[in-house]
Amino acid sequence: MAKKDKKSKENKKALKAAKAEKKAAKGETKIKKQSKKAGDDIEDEVDIDTLLAQLAEEQAQFEQVHVSVIEKPIKRTNATLVAAPMAQRRELFLFGGETANSQGIVHFYNDLNVYSPESDTWRRYLSKNAPLARSSHAMCFHPSGIMVLHGGEFSSPKQSTFHHYSDTWILDVESKEWAKAEEKRGPSGRSGARMAVWKNYIILSGGFRDLGTHTTYLNDVWLFDVMSYKWKEVEFPQTMSMPDARSGHSFICYNDELFLYGGYTKVKAGKGLQKGKVLTDTWTMKLKSDIKQLRWERKRKQGWQPTPRVGCSMQSHKGRGFLFGGVYDLDETEETLSSEFYNTLLSYNCETNRWFNLKLKARRKKEVVRKEKVDRDKELEDILNDILKNANLNDGETNAEIEDAEVDLLAVKEEKKLAEQEEEEIKKEYPVRAQFPHERFNALTCVMDDIFYIYGGIWENGEVECNLDSFYAIDISKLDGVTVFWEDLSEIYNATADSDEEEDEYEDEDDEGEDEEDENIDRKLVAEDDEDEGTEEEVEEIEIAIPDERPWLPHPKAFESLRNFYVRTGAEFLKWVIDQNRDSRGKDLKTKAFDLAETRWWERREAVQLEEDEMEESGIENVIEKDFTKSTKRR
């Protein structure tokens, strides 16, 4: 009897499997018919290896680097935008990415687009030895003059099958030539990883692999030595507390310390189901030359915290990470998804472990360079030279010889500023807005020379994905507006109009079949480990004052530019630098004094901005200080 029951159960399973297979075959046939009706002959049962071989063959046809001046890059998503602030040339590098047409057919890119802010020019580079087309790769600039690229993904035209690259490429910033790093042992194939630079290393963290049936997220850490072009994996003790595996996170380095924040992962939400999870934790790692000693440490949350979001990553700049936009899924079921999109600009102070929500201010008039300012520069230079002379720390020349031979750092900067202003008058003028760009996620961002650049991004309306074609710039030292190089939001307007029409149609329909719909209501996905989220450490209460880690150093005043701050406090910084650098002399000491003043100005930026905001609310837009060096008679 037991044998018969077992046999009947097996027969039922076989019948059920046959029915499922038949149903799947019908579904595929239906899709193919719909595809042909739409005029699309491309079927998605294309071998990815064959596609990649064809791309490699097409790539080999290039005999040399082909350069062309373009108006702007082709619209794309999931590319990389990286700043290369070299001394002789400062450029932005846009590589790779993907676009999808109205039929859902995806096209991948491997062109290199380079933007020069000085000449306001885009150039497109195509070469024989460039990496194959890809998106969602990781790319980072190293001050030695190279870019390092790793991984990324490529898919069949309709994205039914994926290929994750595991290769590493080196781009020479000057020549724009690519070279593949030939090494057998390195990070596995992945997408959504992040990179940071430290000394002679490029550090890679996390990412994911889409295996079709499920997605695997990673939490490994690798170091790429730019001297030897070799990868080394960081092996952590099994007992050590580790960040969760994730992709699309923030990953920056400051003062020999790594900072990892947020990201996205998937957790189990029932049998055969996964639910997306947005991470909001912060981890740090003190960097050492002996990688066996590297350890992760979780940071305790304090002060104001941003709302959870993904699709945005920090860009490192002078001790802080800047982050724009993002998205958060409010409600996720097996069939539906509702999301909230952001267009806020946030900053994270690495030294104080605090977040700030940045706001735009009214644009102020450009300062006119007057003779008084030049006199103050000369006066400061005389003071600095006298300090060095009295301390017997000049460069072995007389004070007069120093004045004749030495070019003042501030004077050079002032000349450069004047030259840039003259160039701006010749250049094309772009509109400046007093509001941040439209909400979006996965925007490409980078920072160079205090300018925060935003390229493209994605916005969704239901199941409609809008690829935004736009390019902006924000001066994060002033926050006085958003420069719009170009902006095309037509896809958003079209998607919004279509959704309004659909809503009207649904309202006119009868409510027949409500009972049937009730039986098939989407089951809300609940992560199996959501219960643990409540155990996360409590956030410390917000303190009104921003703590000052170095109160003995001069403090910037409200509405005081970096230049004016140094003119006022340069002598104090020089004295402090002399005490801390006994082996340095002359020019080197003055350079260090200016660097320290610049660091201090940025260090107290948030505190000064809060003071400025309070003053502006009171109607004060500027502070004019009396010059007590000039005597006046009372009448």
Low-confidence stretches: 27-43, 397-407, 513-521, 531-536, 538-543, 626-635
Number of helices: 10
β-strand number: 34
Number of domains: 4
The end-to-end distance, rounded to whole angstroms, is 121 Å
Beta-strand percent range: 25-35%
Blueprint (SSEs and pairs):
Layout: H1 2-37, H2 48-59, E1 66-70, E2 80-85, E3 90-95, E4 98-100, E5 106-108, E6 112-116, E7 121-126, E8 138-142, E9 146-150, E10 153-155, E11 162-164, E12 168-172, E13 178-180, E14 194-198, E15 201-210, E16 215-225, E17 230-233, E18 250-253, E19 257-268, E20 274-286, E21 297-298, E22 315-317, E23 320-324, E24 327-332, E25 337-341, E26 345-349, E27 354-358, H3 371-390, H4 399-405, H5 409-426, E28 432-433, E29 444-448, E30 451-455, E31 458-461, E32 464-467, E33 469-475, E34 482-488, H6 490-508, H7 514-519, H8 562-580, H9 586-603, H10 605-617
Antiparallel strand pairs: 1-7, 2-3, 3-6, 4-5, 6-7, 8-9, 9-12, 10-11, 12-13, 14-15, 15-16, 16-17, 18-19, 19-20, 20-21, 22-23, 23-26, 24-25, 26-27, 28-34, 29-30, 30-33, 31-32, 33-34
Helix pairs in contact: 3-8, 8-9
